[in-house]
Amino acid sequence: MTTPSSPAPASRIRWRRGRVTELGRAWRDAQEMTVKVFDDDAIRALAHPSLVGTPEVGDEVLLNTTAWAQKLGTGGYALVVAVPDRLPADPTGLGTPGAGHLVKGRYTPLQVTVQGVDEQETEHHEAIAAARTSGACPWWWPTCTRRCRRCSPGVHVTDPALRVAYVMTDGGALPAAFSRTLDALGPSLAGGGHRGRRRVDRLRPARAGPVPDAGPPGRAAPAAGRGSRGGADPAARPGDGGAGDR
Prior knowledge:
Layout lengths: L14 E13 L2 E8 L4 E6 L1 H4 L7 E5 L1 H4 L8 E5 L19 E3 L7 E3 L10 H6 L17 H11 L21 H6 L13 H5 L43
């Protein structure tokens, strides 16, 4: 057994336990609720069902209240980390080639794997491997998610047949599943829900094919060399970091 060379650092997370007393709005992969914190007041909380399961009234939940307590960019929500007495089922196909190898929340207790659109097992791999450009597709870089409200309607006024895709970068961005803006724009966005190591790879599926399910929440996958397993996106930059209607 080894002895740490320095004292253990203080916790950076403000943990709380509570009980769900009421369910609120639900959209995409997000569920609002009211939680009565043990020995404290009731607070608003948010759960992502694909990560923690779907809390029900009466469930005890474990909360991360760090940013909520500091009134930072969580939209006024504490975040549900787990429903300890009713854990969700294991992910389908975990450990198989089709399960995906891109890790979000890397090296954190809540890291999750997703399948990248450029992985060898996907239907898009050959097209992405052969492509060299984005096909002269025009780009618009909004500084925050809510500005998509202006772009998508404007494009379709010009030509209703045009396809609009939204690429979310890694960094401090609002999770896609948390955004009510993206949820509302979903029917008019092409190719949503794909992950990829490079931004251009995430865009290509928008040119054809059906719009897949959004999948687990989180930021876009990190960039890396084609066909590799991982890597970091040196060009990624933070997004808005605001509330779910952003």
